Backbone:
């Protein structure tokens, strides 16, 4: 963390000179509980769930109407829109598929994201019951919920676990990649002449070159 | 592809079209200028030396010369499903110095540009605070403010190059970075105004766009150098860059720099939202993924020459130019290689060398007209040395998408054309 330490030292030095210490400046006003409630839509592991309930079956109808055009009937994705399901066991392969079931660590993230950003182009339009229902269906598509009669609600949400949660690690670049802190080589750093091993032109996907391939 | 066209062909096209600049309308390449119009050149006197031009305030908000119309942000259509959740790239090869003009700063939106009426702008600050607050834009402008230039780099910059050379142009390989002078309120002043509870450890930053973009920010960084900015290069933020207020988190990945900032919630743990779990986590070869990889590692790129900016003079005195930056502090040194990384010379840093800002470098040499394999290598104040792509892949594999800061190679051909390549 030496970079962070250096950065802090610099900021403290500059800050002390430029900004005299002040107590409260009395700018702004107190936010009301009502104002906060309208905008505080965040859900996180174990907290923030709104009241409500919805079944997988109810979610399926909503999903087919408002989600399937982009994400596919089974979450398989239409065109280049994000895939929601599948990809289990692919993360260490050459072609990893990062779906909710294969990659996402927390079910609360699914509900939070649908609540704040979906349906695309009509965000924050779902009622709380619709939100539970669609979330239940998307988790059903990922085999996290197995029973199509299942009703998801604030009380049983915490039971849902996504399989990839243990596979996230904290940023460890400064220890794992400590060899990048070094005295760089200046002369004869590699044997022989440099050989071109790959060219952008081989792929020919730069814009204006015509239509390129589909990527995710 | 414009960059594969021979300069001679473009010169001919420019002459036929009567254009002063040969840059094609859509190619984004600043290739050789045509011979122009001899009637405007010595010994003749051109029209602009005879007749009156437009008066003052005709151009009430000034724009670049009509001859620079090719200097624009560009996107890669096949990359995303829609323009509203997509990215456009800064034309780094057309710029110099270390400040990016406001209209050329790369864009990344998740639900299009939010057009916010400043009269309706509100920022709510709540959670683990003594007193939840709501600020108007005028409130934010009353706070003590600072001016700081910082680079802002998308964690996915160069993300398309993990598996090999793919895009021909530094605009596309490295153009998700910009650097402007922000004016804003240190976030710690807003937090002090609300009063932090003792268990406060993380912040949730939330945008007012139709994706309600969120990221979790450790309190330590919020109290350090994070800003709530409302100006860029002196003028109010552009709508595409978060008007009227955005978060600036120096040295950290741009995805966290929430635009159209509407809410800051103080909490004790991260929120694990979509942008910090399913996205912006770095998948390693063993299937594990790093999360909260906030800091942008030191990086550099040669902007001229590059595939969109070939060496048209064929031989002789040449100034090679590029940009370097580091999320850990100042750029300490940049080295340049003309032979694909076998031998290196230290480049000259020019202009301001500021903490977590883009830094301009130059290297002068006499080009003998032979093929070149150009590379640049940044070092920062902590002693970190920008790795080769091979070194980076050894640690990360090729599935990471994010945080690709490997050394870029440009192949300059005897014709002066430049291609994005990888060397073995």
Residues:
């Amino acid at each position: 963390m030496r970079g962070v330490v250096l950065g802090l030292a610099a900021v403290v030095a500059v800050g002390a000179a430029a900004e005299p210490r002040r107590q409260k400046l009395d700018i702004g006003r107190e936010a009301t509980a009502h104002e906060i409630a309208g905008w505080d839509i965040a859900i996180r592991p174990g907290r923030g769930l709104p009241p409500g309930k919805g079944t997988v079956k109810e979610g399926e109808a909503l999903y087919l109407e408002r989600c399937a055009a982009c994400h596919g009937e089974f979450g398989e994705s239409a065109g280049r829109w994000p895939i929601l399901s599948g990809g289990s066991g692919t993360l260490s392969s050459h072609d990893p598929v990062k779906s909710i079931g294969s990659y996402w660590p927390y079910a609360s993230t699914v509900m939070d994201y649908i609540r704040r950003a979906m349906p695309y182009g009509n965000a924050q339009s779902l009622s709380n019951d619709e939100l539970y229902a669609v979330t239940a269906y998307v988790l059903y598509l990922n085999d996290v919920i197995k029973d199509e009669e299942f009703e998801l609600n604030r009380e049983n949400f915490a039971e849902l676990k996504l399989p990839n949660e243990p596979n996230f690690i904290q940023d460890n670049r400064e220890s794992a990649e400590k060899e990048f802190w070094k005295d760089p080589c200046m002369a004869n750093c590699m044997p022989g002449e440099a050989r071109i091993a790959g060219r952008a032109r081989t792929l020919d996907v730069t814009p204006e070159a015509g239509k390129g391939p589909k990527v995710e | 592809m414009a960059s594969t066209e021979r300069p001679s062909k473009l010169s001919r096209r420019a002459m036929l079209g009567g254009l002063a600049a040969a840059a094609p309308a859509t190619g984004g390449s600043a290739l050789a200028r045509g011979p122009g119009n001899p009637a405007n050149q010595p010994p003749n006197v051109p029209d602009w030396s005879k007749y009156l031009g437009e008066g003052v305030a005709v151009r009430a908000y000034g724009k670049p010369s009509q001859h620079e119309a090719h200097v624009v942000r560009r996107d890669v259509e096949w990359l995303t499903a829609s323009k509203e959740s997509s990215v456009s790239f800064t034309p780094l090869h057309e710029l110099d110095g270390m400040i990016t003009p406001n209209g050329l700063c790369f864009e990344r939106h998740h639900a299009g540009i939010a057009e916010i009426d400043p009269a309706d702008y509100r920022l709510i600050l709540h959670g683990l605070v003594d007193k939840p607050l709501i600020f108007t834009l005028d409130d934010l402008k009353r706070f003590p403010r600072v001016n700081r230039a910082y680079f802002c780099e998308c964690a996915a910059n160069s993300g398309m190059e993990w598996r090999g050379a793919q895009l021909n142009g530094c605009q596309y390989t490295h153009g998700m970075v910009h650097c402007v002078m922000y004016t804003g309120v240190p976030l710690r002043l807003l937090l002090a105004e609300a009063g932090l509870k003792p268990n406060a450890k993380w912040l949730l930053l939330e945008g007012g766009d139709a994706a309600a973009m969120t990221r979790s920010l450790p309190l330590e960084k919020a109290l350090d150098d994070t800003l709530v900015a409302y100006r860029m290069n002196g003028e109010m933020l552009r709508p595409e860059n978060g008007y009227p207020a955005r978060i600036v988190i120096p040295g950290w990945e741009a995805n966290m720099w929430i635009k159209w900032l509407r809410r800051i919630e103080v909490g004790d743990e991260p929120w694990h939202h979509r942008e910090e779990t399913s996205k912006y986590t770095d998948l390693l070869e063993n299937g594990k993924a790093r999360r909260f990889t906030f800091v942008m590692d030191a990086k550099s790129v040669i902007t001229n020459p590059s595939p969109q900016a070939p060496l048209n003079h064929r031989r002789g005195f040449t100034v090679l130019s590029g940009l370097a930056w580091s999320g850990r502090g100042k750029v300490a040194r940049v080295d340049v290689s003309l032979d694909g990384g076998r031998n290196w010379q230290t480049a000259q840093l020019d202009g301001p060398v500021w903490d977590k800002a883009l830094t301009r470098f130059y290297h002068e040499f006499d080009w003998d007209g032979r093929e070149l394999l150009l590379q640049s290598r940044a070092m920062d104040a902590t002693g970190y040395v920008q790795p080769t792509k091979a070194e980076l892949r050894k640690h990360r594999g090729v599935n990471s998408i994010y945080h690709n800061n490997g050394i870029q190679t440009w192949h300059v051909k005897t014709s002066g054309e430049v291609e994005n390549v990888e060397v073995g």
